[in-house]
């Protein structure tokens, strides 16, 4: 993988360095001078370790400056969540944008430091993935005294093939972030995919879109993740609206969108067996007012279990593939699931 801007994918103009973990987050978690495993070198079979402050990636000065503005706005939002203060809808939208950026940045960094081991040249970079697909953020307060920064789920075959889901622990808060095509649309009543159709002649995935169910489910996924939690999810449908415009041209989708033309659904909150949309002037707290006792979690298992669910729950139509390609498809899925299950056994903590 060439040294390109992490944001736009082009050779950096007025070359700058982007910290994968921003300096304000290092200071907040006391990790400025700490060394941490940031991934796995699959070729050499050893951990990739960096001081947080030197975990950087090339970027254009202009691109870096734009996202620095987002970073500055996200910082007070994270600080509020850490102490159970209320945050507004627009703050949560920016937080989801920021997690899109962090998730893709981690993926690109792991690809870069594996130096072509997987023979996968990235087809996208940060600029083209922020607010592009359905997304969600699961927030859990552990009420422990931990101060630091950890993450899980970014060092799996699932994540390397598809940077969909990972968990970031910031002091006492667990953030599980997930984004993928139509991942919450069906559960939130929006048009959804009956199946994906891999196309060997295109870099894009084909979908068969079905009419939405016009209702919100109270449980989005089977995986429990970190309990108790509050889930914030958002359907993003700009691309799929262009594929099946008639399915989106209805009162349900329009009334549950902040910007229908741009394909931006509302934020939906799922908590205590209830799912409801947030208006732009609303606030929410992620504190567990009923029980602020310290909660002990296994960091790895819930996220890896969720990755397995995301992979096994997908429906595929393989009619565009030849027999050899179908065989490769099934073998790849089987390998990823088996490897993730093995990681669960080895890193069950």
Q: What do you see in this structure?
A:
The protein is α+β, with helices and mostly antiparallel strands. The chain has one domain (16-346). 32% of the residues lie in helices and 22% in strands. The protein has 9 helices and 17 strands. The chain has helices at 23-29, 61-82, 89-113, 157-161, 238-243, 245-248, 251-255, 300-312, 323-346; strands spanning 16-19, 35-41, 46-51, 56-59, 87-88, 135-141, 149-152, 165-170, 173-179, 192-197, 206-210, 230-234, 257-259, 264-265, 268-271, 274-277, 283-284. The strands form 6 sheets. Strands 7-8-9-6-12-15-16 form a 7-stranded antiparallel sheet, sandwiched between helices. α2 (61-82) crosses α3 (89-113) and α8 (300-312) runs antiparallel to α9. The radius of gyration is 20 Å and the shape is globular. The chain starts with 15 loop residues before the first strand and ends with a helix. The model has no long low-confidence stretch (mean pLDDT 90).
